[in-house]
């Protein structure tokens, strides 16, 4: 009875409720109070509101406004991406007592008013607050109230300081995202008293110290991302308490110790990434059957790879590369789910187990490079039909190329370089079957026979490297019909004959050096308008150099060294082109007033071939490390798609394929001016090239707003690989963009494409110091005041970069070409990202030592092969000498330093007389600075002063 009574009353209640409220529902009326709040809001936002309130009197129909089903309450407001910069409107929103979701992400807000926190803290229904991607600075506000808040996203701001109890009052907080801020101190552990937190994203901040065990009291955590901080210490074993954990990301920290045995045992764990730390010890073998992705790359893990890890049934991605794992690959079988397997750069030995791959039908990326594997390529690999990338380079593999490789019709990248393969490229293996091939590197093997003409039918092939084999015969004439080839490396073989017509697509380099090519250099090469490097050195070419070559629009280097039958007058190249012609009978064109090109007749002399030899040897090692990482760049684009879809191929690559673009600057003007598609259009057009440095090409890009920017392309030749993953480049760029020094050129934005990295800078119309000093119309007349001011400015910039406390930022290729002039007195040190981007950590120092500009490279680099602070001081000394002498770093066929030392008895001969003669005071000052320059270029690196002292000396010499 009581039950019926209860039902009856409930029914009555509902009935009554309807009677009272239905008329309102029918009229869909927003309360007067909320209507006027929305009107206020509209007034405050003005034209930056996403809605056009004039048209609709009912705010529920405005863009970005969501009301409940009865249209009587506003429950969601999204003002995302409206260029809002003033926070004044925020407290008004708090008058909407029914608000559940508030999204103000992707704006330019710099602060959250205190009233917003106090007033919105009272809203009983507010579940979601999204402030991500703004410019909020200062420390995290203390959230008092906010009893209903479940999702708080403050990611991608510039909030800083440490986090203590600011979040602890919240009782429903389930998801906290603070990624990409500047928070520091230890990891916060007070994240809501009620302990209901499920998702915790604190990555890419500056948190330090150990991972606190208190975090593991949040038993409902399913996702923890602490990547990209400077956390240290071991992973606490109590982490196994988190019995619901699905994703654990600890990448890019300084964590050490072993990977706790139990961690892979958490049965719910699906993804575990602890790459780029200092973990050591052996890999746990007991792993959860649910694990899908495991990334432990870039640690110091050792011992064998447990079978379970690779055969776990759901496993899709395993990356154990860059460790010191050893032993043989004794696999029974690789998981049929496996998509990507990276074991490169370890100490693995023995044969590649052939039956292991029998069921790996989904395997798309297989990277076993830089190990000590032996034996032949197992034929069974030919049955992994999804393979898009196969990298077995730098092992001790031998035998002939198995014909089964020809079955891999999805293969895009095949890297077998630096092994001991022999036999020919064509039989029985048919290279022509690999129609999707983009990159083929068979260099440094013992392959024989000729270059198969099938190569020309590979319509997607961009990078072909057959260097340093025993190939003979001539280049197949059909190569000219290739449509995609960007880079052709055929150096160090026994190829002969004449050069056939080359594909117009060539861009990076044509390297035919160290072969037996003969005949004349065809003038048809001049049609290769995008080609940057043409290396014909060490051959038997004869006759003259066709004048047309001087018209090659993109050429930066022409190497003709050691072709002793070449003769005649060299064509007149522009100053962008470095021509080397030692060991030929070529002579320079007659001088004229025009800017002189960079001819290097004898400056490198025989040393040049030694350098080349060292280069080849070292580059081989460095290159591999580089390549592995370049591959990341090249391939991660595909990789990122892996989980969703199959690899795309045969894409059109005329415009750079943008993988990622990102604004770095906080300056609102730049942010609104920069248009990425315009920037990419600009780099597609060689006529926009305004400057070239050793590692990069500057393009001028005019944005739709009319403002001009530099887009700098980092050349992706083997001399300058963007040897790093996207994430890494992005992170480095973000750090660089934060550098603040008036003499340092900092990036405003960057774009990553499949094969290059682009950075956007403020345009500098004066160009580089090199241009102004040696080629500009004002070169000779650049007065002393300007030169001195430039010297001090560069020293200031460098001592700032060298003084960065976390770690000095060095210049890979410091020269007058990398100094930009904002005005004739204000220099900017450019190309600062090369050290970080071209070389993330390891070997690239080696590159730069070899590839650094002639004349600026300190003598010790030849032995140390690393870039150093003292090395930068030497290069700076050379720049001082350029300012003092007015002469380029290579002058009269020798390095400027040697020229100056040779003439050191006659100081007045050394100094640029146009300047030194202006007054005795100027001359004295120049002599004082010459002393400083000479200390900087001392042979012994130990005796060179630090930049800070150099700066002080320069200022004292005023
Ligand atoms: C709406 O009501 C709230 C609370 O009753 C009040 O504080 C606020 O001032 C009112 N807003 C308007 C615009 O009348
Ligand atoms: C944390 O950041 C704040 C502000 O950015 C700074 O003042 C403080 O020194 C930093 N603390 C540490 C330990 O780095
Ligand atoms: C912040 O993290 C949460 C939880 O993982 C995620 O849903 C959200 O998209 C992230 N925010 C941004 C701006 O990426
Ligand atoms: C974890 O979540 C469950 C289900 O959502 C909830 O009942 C429980 O109270 C939460 N645990 C803690 C420690 O709050």
TrEMBL record:
Membrane-protein topology: Single-pass membrane protein
A Pfam family: LRR_1
Transmembrane segments: 610-635
InterPro entries for this protein: Kinase-like_dom_sf, Leu-rich_rpt, Leu-rich_rpt_typical-subtyp, LRR_dom_sf, LRR_N_plant-typ, Plant_LRR-RLKs, Prot_kinase_dom
Localization terms from the record: Membrane
All residue ranges annotated as the Protein kinase domain in the record: 684-958
Broad class of the protein's primary localization: membrane
Any one cellular-component term (Gene Ontology): membrane
Keyword Heme assigned: no
GO molecular function: ATP binding; protein kinase activity; receptor serine/threonine kinase binding
Signal peptide positions (record): 1-28
Keywords: Glycoprotein, Kinase, Leucine-rich repeat, Membrane, Receptor, Repeat, Signal, Transferase, Transmembrane, Transmembrane helix
Identification of the protein by name: Leucine-rich repeat receptor-like tyrosine-protein kinase
Native organism taxonomy: Eukaryota, Viridiplantae, Streptophyta, Embryophyta, Tracheophyta
């Amino acid at each position: 009875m009581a039950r019926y009574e209860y039902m009856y009353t409930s029914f009555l209640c509902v009935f009554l409720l309807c009677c009272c409220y239905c008329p309102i529902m029918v009229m869909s009326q927003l309360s007067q109070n909320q209507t006027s709040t929305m009107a206020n809001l509209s007034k405050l936002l003005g034209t930056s509101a996403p809605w056009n309130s004039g048209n609709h009197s009912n705010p529920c129909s405005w863009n970005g406004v969501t009301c409940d089903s009865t249209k009587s309450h506003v429950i969601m407001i999204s003002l995302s991406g409206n260029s809002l910069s003033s926070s004044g409107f925020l407290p008004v929103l708090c008058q909407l007592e029914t608000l559940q979701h508030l999204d103000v992400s992707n704006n330019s807000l710099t602060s959250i008013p205190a009233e917003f926190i106090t007033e919105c803290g009272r809203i009983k229904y507010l579940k979601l607050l999204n402030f991500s991607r703004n410019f909020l600075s200062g420390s995290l506000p203390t959230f008092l109230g906010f009893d209903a808040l479940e999702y708080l996203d403050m990611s991608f701001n510039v909030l800083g300081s440490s986090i203590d109890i600011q979040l602890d009052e919240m009782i429903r907080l389930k998801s906290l995202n603070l990624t990409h801020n500047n928070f520091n101190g230890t990891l916060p552990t007070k994240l809501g008293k009620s302990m209901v937190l499920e998702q915790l994203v604190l990555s890419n901040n500056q948190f330090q110290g150990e991972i606190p065990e208190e975090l593991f009291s949040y038993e409902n955590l399913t996702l923890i991302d602490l990547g990209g901080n400077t956390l240290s210490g071991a992973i606490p074993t109590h982490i196994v308490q988190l019995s619901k954990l699905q994703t654990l990301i600890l990448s890019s920290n300084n964590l050490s110790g072993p990977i706790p045995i139990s961690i892979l045992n958490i049965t719910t764990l699906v993804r575990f990434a602890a790459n780029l730390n200092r973990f050591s010890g052996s890999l746990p073998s007991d792993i959860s059957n649910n694990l899908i992705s495991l990334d432990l790359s870039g640690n110091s893990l050792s011992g064998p790879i447990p079978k379970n890890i690779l055969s776990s049934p759901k496993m899709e991605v395993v990356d154990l590369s860059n460790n010191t794992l050893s032993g043989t690959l004794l696999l029974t079988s690789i998981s049929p789910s496996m998509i990507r397997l990276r074991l490169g750069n370890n100490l693995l030995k023995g044969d590649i187990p052939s039956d292991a791959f029998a069921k790996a039908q989904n395997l798309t990326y297989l990277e076993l490079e830089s190990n000590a594997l032996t034996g032949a390529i197992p034929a069974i690999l030919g049955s992994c039909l999804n393979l898009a990338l196969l990298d077995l380079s730098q092992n001790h593999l031998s035998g002939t190329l198995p014909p089964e490789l020809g079955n891999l019709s999805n293969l895009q990248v095949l890297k077998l370089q630096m092994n001991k393969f022999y036999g020919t490229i064509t039989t029985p293996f048919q290279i022509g079957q690999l129609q999707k091939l983009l990159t083929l590197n068979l260099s440094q093997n013992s392959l024989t026979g000729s270059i198969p003409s099938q190569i020309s039918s590979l319509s997607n092939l961009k990078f072909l490297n057959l260097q340093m084999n025993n190939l003979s015969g001539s280049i197949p004439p059909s190569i000219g019909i290739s449509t995609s080839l960007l880079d052709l490396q055929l150096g160090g073989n026994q190829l002969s004959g004449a050069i056939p017509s080359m594909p117009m697509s060539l861009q990076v380099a044509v390297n035919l050096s160290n072969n037996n090519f003969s005949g004349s250099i065809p003038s048809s090469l001049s049609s290769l308008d995008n080609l940057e490097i043409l290396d014909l050195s060490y051959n038997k070419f004869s006759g003259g150099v066709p004048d047309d070559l001087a018209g090659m629009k993109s050429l930066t280097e022409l190497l003709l060294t050691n072709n002793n039958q070449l003769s005649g007058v060299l064509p007149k190249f522009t100053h962008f082109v470095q021509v080397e012609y030692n060991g030929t009978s070529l002579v320079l064109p007659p001088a004229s007033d025009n800017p002189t090109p960079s001819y290097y007749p004898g400056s490198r002399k025989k040393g040049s071939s030694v350098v080349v030899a060292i280069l080849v040897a070292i580059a081989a090692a460095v290159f591999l490390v580089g390549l592995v990482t370049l591959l990341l760049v090249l391939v991660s684009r595909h990789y990122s798609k892996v989980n969703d879809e199959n690899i795309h191929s045969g894409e059109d690559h005329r415009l750079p394929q943008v993988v990622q673009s990102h604004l770095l600057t906080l300056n609102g003007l730049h942010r609104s001016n920069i248009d990425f598609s315009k920037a990419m259009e600009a780099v597609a057009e060689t006529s926009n090239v305004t400057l070239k440095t050793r590692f990069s090409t500057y393009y001028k890009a005019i944005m739709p707003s009319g403002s001009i920017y530099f887009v700098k392309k980092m050349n992706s030749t083997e001399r300058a690989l963007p040897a790093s993953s996207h994430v890494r480049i992005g992170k480095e760029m973000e750090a660089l963009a934060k550098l603040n020094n008036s003499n340092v050129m900092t990036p405003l934005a960057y774009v990553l494409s499949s094969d290059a990295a682009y950075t956007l800078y403020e345009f500098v119309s004066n160009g580089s110091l090199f241009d102004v000093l040696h080629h500009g119309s004002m070169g000779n007349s650049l007065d002393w005041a300007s030169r001195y001011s430039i010297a001090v400015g560069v020293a200031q910039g460098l001592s700032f970069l060298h003084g960065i406390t976390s770690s000095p930022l060095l210049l890979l290729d410091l020269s007058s070409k990398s100094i930009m002039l904002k005005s004739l007195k204000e220099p900017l040190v450019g190309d600062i990202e090369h050290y970080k981007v071209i070389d993330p950590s390891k070997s690239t120092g080696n590159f730069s030592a070899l590839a650094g500009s002639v004349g600026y490279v300190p003598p010790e680099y030849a032995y140390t092969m690393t870039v150093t602070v003292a090395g930068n001081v030497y290069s700076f000394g050379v720049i001082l000498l350029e300012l003092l002498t007015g002469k380029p770093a290579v002058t009269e066929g020798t390095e400027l330093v040697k020229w100056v030392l040779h003439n050191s008895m006659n100081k007045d001969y050394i100094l640029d007389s146009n300047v030194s003669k202006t007054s005795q005071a100027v001359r004295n000052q120049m002599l004082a600075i010459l002393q400083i320059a000479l200390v900087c270029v001392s042979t012994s690196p130990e005796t060179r002063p630090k930049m800070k002292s150099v700066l002080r000396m320069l200022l004292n010499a005023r």
